[in-house]
Fold:
Amino acid sequence: MTEKKEILRIENLNITIKNGSKRFHVLKDVSFTVREGERWAIAGESGAGKSMTMNAMTSLLPEESTEMTGKILFSTKDGGWQDLLALSYKERRKFVSEQIAIIFQDSINALNPNERIMKQWGETIRLHRPSLSQAELENHILDQMDIFGIRGGRETLQHFPDQLSGGMRQRIAIAMALESQARILIADEPTTSLDAISQRNTIEFIRKLLETKQWTLLFISHNLGILQSMCDHIIIMKDGAIVEQGTTDDLFYHPKEPYTRQLVRETMKIMGSSEALV
Amino acid sequence: MNESRSDSIVKVIDVIKTFPGARKGLIGRSPDFTAVKGVSFEMYRGELLGLLGESGCGKSTLAKMLMHLLLPTSGEIHLNGVQIQDMPESSFRKLRRQIQMVYQNPFDCLDPSMRIKGLLEEPLKIWYPDMTEETRQEKIDNILEECGLPQNCLSKYPKEFSGGQLQRISIARALLVEPQVLIADEIISALDVSIQNQILNLLIRMKERHHLSILFITHDLSVARRVSDRVMVMQSGEIKGIGTPDQVFSEQSDPYIKDLTSAVFTFSGRA
Structure:
């Protein structure tokens, strides 16, 4: 098997947050490399730095109060690398939006409550493909609704977000996030606010999407069960630093670091496979 | 449901709770909403009854009715053999000590302007106004030790603690007045996994030591399975199954329970 192409390289990433005269070193020497089509998990307990890593990669941190050093490298079409941190703050946002699609923990609330679904979805598409006619746009949305299992056709599109169920809103938010022509999908705790059955459905749905499209995934969660079913590689973080990284099987069956072992043990107690009942 | 066991402490018979629809315009009303639809069950002394259900299934409404914070539309609720559903608040107050509740987010439940000492003294002062300072201090010391809290926490404020520590304080505070029933509403869902285990162990230990009946409300099937002596599954205001975890999650159970069971992510590893 040929080695897959490297698509993302984080090198010695350090982040310091400034708050008045106080400074917090929140991310410490984070380095990892992701290859095309791989599914990476970032796991750890609250405050470990999972979301901070993602926010740095997606340029979501406020410029004034954040100090970043290190490199966030994206592979370019010509075979070279572009360092996100070498770009101006304004350029970063644009560059990132072409590379990465993001689904947040509260995607469910990501929709504008005051606008009908049709209007917001349409605007998102126009952002990426301004030349589409209204009819093409509508057909595209109806096709996407089919793919994403969003029921109700045109009628649903005329609804406001709060007229739809949580699971439905989550799907629409995901579908909208994926309108961008990105290569990397970052999902930050996308199912935390969902109940068990919608959670399972959303995960299955993301998995199916990944199988049909060749996206690379970065999945952030504290739920090791979900990560295990979804990802082939995993990074365990604690207090802003990487504790251990490797393939999911290696880490869960042969953890080296005491912290990883403890996390595996505690998770086994809570949701261990002896409890499995499918 | 007719013959009740002698160790029954809470008995709920055909309880229905309907919320009237909101006013719409001048004369219109949206339809009424029935959150709990004819629920019957019993809790026994010293058992941990898991109440499993997803958001909106009526589990918190049910808990509020047991706590006498909401009155049922119809049906009966017995606490220690006494019917409480029609009791005015003034009469229920005497019984309130018997049933205590711990909530999901301890940061919201403990007055941030009070030190832990004050927070723990408050329920004792209310329930045992004649208790001497000495006895009060002794009771607080004992409960701190039982809940694995250090003595020096008394002089601190809630904001100085982590979520797990604060949840221990909430449990200590609820147990100080020696209730017979404890309602634990999603008390571990905001915590990290290692802390979740510690709080669950604390709860089980307290149940055994004090012969406490615990209604453990959760949306997490693995947790409900692990800690419950019996488990009760609710969906859309109805009980879909009640019994030991093995009985409830067995092959023959209700289609909803089957769906829920298959939706659970499990984890396997070695450490």
Q: What stands out?
A: The first strand of chain B starts at residue 8 and ends at 19. Chain B has ten helices and twelve strands. Residues 94 and 217 of chain B are 25 Å apart (CA to CA).
